[in-house]
Amino acid sequence: MKAGLYNQLLDDIQGYLKSQYQLLQVRSVEQVSQLIGLIIALFAITAIVVIGLIFFAIALAAWLELWLPMWASYLVIAGVMLLIALAVYWGRNLWFVRPIEKHLGAMVLGNPTSLIQQKQVVENQAAMQHELLERDVAEMQRDWAQVQRIWQMIRGLLAGGSD
Hints:
By secondary structure, this protein is mostly helical. Helices cover 92% and strands 0% of the residues. It is built from four helices and no strands. The protein has helices at residues 2-64, 70-90, 92-109, 115-162. The protein is rod-shaped.
């Protein structure tokens, strides 16, 4: 009776693991597709913005030529671009990294909290799972040692009874 129950349990576990693996595959393909689409969109938007900024800078330099020599107007525009580049560099974590982490965390992990917090939660869960696994292994080793002692007692009784 117990053997059939164990076989049914193993079949159920196997079916559950297969369905979870298939679900993981489907979700992975979905998330990778969304991520690739986001990357392509970001590249396209970046290219359009860069081209627009180039034309804007040329137009602004041409407008400044009304009051300044040509070389000075282009130098002013280059200086402004340098200042903008420095501001973007100094604000990259606030303006780019954290929003991207939050967006990807929401998209891939299903949780919009910060990646640092999510990492800490996952590390804590992994440590707890490791402790539980070690406890279960130790319990199984104790049970196995008991089974071996009982088996040795039965052998001893059978060997002593046969004399």
